[in-house]
Amino acid sequence: xxxxxxxxxxxxxxxxxxxxxxxxxxxxxxxxxxxxxxxxxxxxxxxxxxxxxxxxxxxxxxxxxxxxxxxxxxxxxxxxxxxxxxxxxxxxxxxxxxxxxxxxxxxxxxxxxxxxxxxxxxxxxxxxxxxxxxxxxxxxxxxxxxxxxxxxxxxxxxxxxxxxxxxxxxxxxxxxxxxxxxxxxxxxxxxxxxxxxxxxxxxxxxxxxxxxxxxxxxxxxxxxxxxxxxxxxxxxxxxxxxxxxxxxxxxxxxxxxxxxxxxxxxxxxxxxxxxxxxxxxxxxxxxxxxxxxxxxxxxx
Length: 300
Prior knowledge:
Layout: E1 8-11, H1 24-36, E2 41-44, H2 56-70, E3 75-79, H3 85-97, E4 102-106, H4 115-128, E5 133-137, H5 139-142, H6 148-157, E6 161-166, H7 172-180, E7 186-189, H8 195-200, E8 205-208, H9 211-226, H10 230-246, H11 254-262, H12 279-298
Parallel strand pairs: 1-2, 1-8, 2-3, 3-4, 4-5, 5-6, 6-7, 7-8
């Protein structure tokens, strides 16, 4: 394994105050909550952290604060991607200066590069920054899909291109990736509800949103699978499935922020163009959360 981030990487939300400044008091509470509930690594300034509405200075301040609170207890990954190769390199260099353990770098969005363009983009980053790079393929947000052959060529040509976050529901692509990529290259599921299916095809774990709420249970599911207890892993997956689905009832991270507010951890403020859940949506989400808590108590 080129870089071991563990089995659960939480793509952390960014809590805001009512005036939409970063809520550092809530952030400290959230970071400790994540560490206490099963996160092996924390991803700072990913899409779930609302980076489209964060300035670069805010991202850097956010990471520096989280690093201080974490104090070496888990690994820290910084989202340093951009649809500008130059900007992605600058952000990646800054991430190393701030002490990131690894980078998450998304396929360029909006400008829709070719496979050759994707290769050129990520190879430029790998050449400029001596940190493990986790590629991020999410065609629903970028408009383009990075093909397994492109991922494999990058992994073969650059030893610091260490892993892939795959947010694509086509599971055949996982088989293609496992056949084409070096054996020490890691694949992380990017969709909570597909964690167990992807792991059955060789994925190493998940870069998760639901781990904000159900980290320990997800850890149990993954451990059960790795230990060969497939029935137990499936049972946990099915118990978590309604929560997985409901946390994406509206654009991420709106529902998970509402859930964390329900749990008393942070406020649910989001920056426009995102908007908070309405009362009916909250009732639907909180009903699922309530059932999840009841099942947890019953299964103890």
